[in-house]
Write a structure and sequence with these properties.
Largest sheet: 6 strands, parallel
Helix content: 25-40%
CATH topology: Rossmann fold
Shape: globular
Pfam families: Flavodoxin_2 (PF02525)
Order of helices and strands: EHEHHEHEHEEHHEE
Keywords: Oxidoreductase
Oligomer: single chain
Strand content: 5-15%
InterPro entries: Flavodoxin_fold (IPR003680), Flavoprotein-like_sf (IPR029039), NAD(P)H_dehydrogenase_qn (IPR051545)
Radius of gyration: 19 Å
Structural class: alpha/beta
GO cellular component, one term: cytosol
CATH superfamily: Flavodoxin domain
Number of domains: 1
Number of strands: 8
Distance between the termini: 26 Å
Family: Belongs to the NAD(P)H dehydrogenase (quinone) family.
Length: about 260
């Protein structure tokens, strides 16, 4: 497999740095090809701006979406954006690795998404009609690829349990797994989450690495999170609401999972 790791941590000697090295080493030892986009080391520009296009700048009002579309279609995107898109085309599997900061990814990684997910590349594709509302949520240009989150957090696993004070980890990661990855077509496998990182210790680290290696060995076969496809018949179009006969009387993020799959 071709595996792209997009990595966001500012300290290479951190736990995240060690886990990234373990991931790269293990995947390569199994014969896989690996590229790493180390966003802090790259000094990645996280800010969307008119400079994302190499087209001459006129005096018109800057519209980020339309400017993104025009630059993508004309082959005039900034070089760093085009390079990351090429990595995504190359990859069979995408791993987003980051510490959970304030219940989300670090800003630099969100900026990677903002700029690399160009109009026409990751969104704004496909037919829009009364029966098909664009190629997204299970379809799209990145369909057929897999993705996984590798996340570290200082909180205990119980803090992120369904009744934990921080909220269920699957709910916290829903905007990333469903709204960023599945949206663009990825099959999203369950996240690999490391809890209570400040108290991991040597024995905990050894157990974590063993579990991570086991997960990496199943990347191509583990069942993905069963998100419902937008155009698969479960949602009314164009309202894009779940059919009344599916999870009747229920609401919340969990209704977008097809537990019968």
């Amino acid at each position: 497999m071709n595996v792209l790791i997009v990595y966001a941590h500012p300290e290479p000697r951190s736990l995240n740095g060690a886990l990234r090295s373990e991931t790269v080493s293990h995947l390569r030892s199994r014969g896989h090809h690996v590229q790493v986009s180390d966003l802090y080391a790259m000094n990645w520009n996280a800010v969307v701006s008119p400079a994302d296009s190499r087209a001459p700048q006129g005096g018109a009002r800057f519209d980020p979406s339309l400017a993104s579309r025009d630059a993508y279609e004309a082959g005039l995107q900034a070089d760093d954006i085009a390079a990351e898109q090429e990595k995504l085309r190359w990859a069979d599997v995408l791993i987003l690795q980051f510490p959970l900061w304030w219940f989300s990814m670090p800003a630099i990684m969100k900026g990677w998404v903002d700029r690399v997910y160009a109009y026409g590349f990751a969104y704004g594709v496909g037919e829009h009609s009364d029966t098909h509302w664009g190629d997204r949520y299970g379809e799209g240009t990145l369909a057929g690829k897999r993705a996984m989150l590798l996340v570290t957090t200082g909180g205990w696993a119980s803090h992120y349990a369904p009744r934990g004070v921080n909220g269920a980890i699957d709910d916290l990661l829903f905007p990333i797994q469903h709204g960023i990855l599945f949206y663009a077509g990825f099959d999203v496998v369950p996240p690999f989450v490391v809890y209570r990182t400040g108290r991991l210790g040597d024995d905990g680290y050894v157990r974590t690495v063993a579990a991570l290696r086991a997960r990496l060995d199943t990347l191509d076969v583990i069942a993905p999170v069963p998100f419902r496809k937008q155009n698969g018949g479960d949602y009314a179009i164009p309202a894009l609401t779940l059919r009344e006969d599916l999870a009747p009387g229920e609401a919340g993020l969990h209704v977008h999972l097809d537990r019968t799959a």
